[in-house]
Amino acid sequence: MSVKAAIDIGTNSVRLLVADCQAGRIVPLVKELRTTRLGQGVHHSGRLQPDAVERTLAAIDALAAIAKQRQADEIIAVATSAVRDAVNGPEFIQLCRARTGVTVQILSGIEEARLSFNGALQGRIAGSRQLVIDIGGGSTELAFGGQKELLYVHSLNVGAVRLKDIFPADADGVVTNIPEIRRYVTAAIKALPPLVLPDAITGVGGTITSLAAIAQQLTAYDSEKVHGYYLDTACVNRLLAALAALPLAERKKTAGLQPERADIIVYGIAILAALLDELGSNGLTVSERDILEGILEQLSAKQII
């Protein structure tokens, strides 16, 4: 076995994948997630907050320990939107190295999109017009290409945590301003070069995998039922309206939705709905594989991330 580990330090969560990487194949051994909300408030303050930093460092330390227990001989850690946007992002990287021994690389939005594309399509051949959508806490990445050759990549500064900071819910957690949120996201999309409707769309990230679980009313998360699930646009819009209208306490009871994601899920769905509308698409296929697999694929190929 050649055991490698990847840690993704995102705006909403820190995730770990430990896998056996041999002969171009990535066989997952362990997947873990810790919700730390590192990027909360970054959009307004421009800084990572001390409490969020402490939660995140504790999560990185715990996940690195799991990787070592599984005898990973290499750990690659990357940070995305929250850390690259924050003025104290470099300080966080230094603190992480000092406190946990983990060296973290800050990815640009373009690098993040490229890795998500490769990870999502790992193990299968893309069509000539394949789009991968990765909705995160701080940003949304779009990667378009085929045969694993990217034709374009875009990074939008709209994510579920960021939108929650910009458009707070009411006192009960009801998200009352969906039209305004949709207009905000659509304006960001229209600032890009025109998007072309691809032959197929693949979606990754917690918003999209959660949607697949909610659509199937899974009382326990089942990755085999989530991976490969087709989310049609009508279902996305129906769930957006239904979940936005619920008070937070009720939304947390939704089958298939992790309670710690309940306060941001509506914002992530709004991003997806706006993208599908702009593309004129009927829906997308959900992938459990994402940036983590992309990192390990490049590592096993001895390429620099």
Automatic annotation (TrEMBL):
Segments forming domain Ppx/GppA phosphatase N-terminal: 18-298
The organism's place on the tree of life at top rank: Bacteria
InterPro entries the UniProt entry points to: ATPase_NBD, GppA/Ppx_hydrolase, Ppx_GppA_N
GO MF annotations, alphabetized: pyrophosphatase activity
Matches recorded under Pfam families: Ppx-GppA (PF02541)
Family: Belongs to the GppA/Ppx family.
Protein name: Exopolyphosphatase/guanosine-5'-triphosphate, 3'-diphosphate pyrophosphatase
